[in-house]
Amino acid sequence: xxxxxxxxxxxxxxxxxxxxxxxxxxxxxxxxxxxxxxxxxxxxxxxxxxxxxxxxxxxxxxxxxxxxxxxxxxxxxxxxxxxxxxxxxxxxxxxxxxxxxxxxxxxxxxxxxxxxxxxxxxxxxxxxxxxxxxxxxxxxxxxxxxxxxxxxxxxxxxxxxxxxxxxxxxxxxxxxxxxxxxxxxxxxxxxxxxxxxxxxxxxxxxxxxxxxxxxxxxxxxxxxxxxxxxxxxxxxxxxxxxxxxxxxxxxxxxxxxxxxxxxxxxxxxxxxxxxxxxxxxxxxxxxxxxxxxxxxxxxxxxxxxxxxxxxxxxxxxxxxxxxxxxxxxxxxxx
Length: 334
Prior knowledge:
By secondary structure, the chain is an all-alpha fold. It contains twelve helices and no strands. α1 (3-19) packs antiparallel against α2, α5 (97-138) runs parallel beside α7 (183-190) and α10 packs antiparallel against α11 (275-299). It starts with a helix and ends with a helix.
């Protein structure tokens, strides 16, 4: 048993359960870059492991009522057949080193798209939060948090949802990337009123049949390695369960930002970037990224740091509570 693979599976499992992202986007590059596993074998083994791992996190979100089943059905209508077709596309590309190189390049490009998607997802959520915050201060609209009724208010767009599932399924079948990191971003763009926990829960549940379809294709036509998958599962199953428990009660903003940097580094490495280019790209993302994000928050009327906003919200809540208690005392004395 390769315990290093098990440890890697545990870490990735936590991220998958916490954010709904990072399964194939993290695990497959880790297998290729750090463990020297051929790209096609890494994709095949990771997908089979994900087919077992995804339902664990999904059950937690189902139990907490964080799933829009109508969205799940329309997504699966497109994604399940497309995922199997993605495996056939890989097979049509040929065999040997040329196929391995093609899969590696496709994986690198998919990771860059995943990074762009993560940034766009964060921007859309931040902009939506800023608008609701401004509306609440102006005394129009409801509270900043949409509440549990937001899940029931979703108006499903069938055609767009099926197309999203089909494109996402094709990418997943070819690279194992996309069931969380790509689909979840477009899902947020289509349905911006979905809360974070509902978004993760819906995406995790729709990913179960999607990944199962892709895994079946790779078992038949891919390069599945049982020893790799077994080591991953021993670590990832408890990891995704733990992450899903935390996700149902908390936000994973910091994890998502760190995930974006890791995915960028993985993409550059898979696309044959030199060590200098790799270090420069990661350093730029780690240093300039937070500066750019602070500027974007400021432009949208939010405090530069999210922590400042939390402190102000706490202070405002404490002030309101004190005022209410003072009024109650004055009323009693009167």
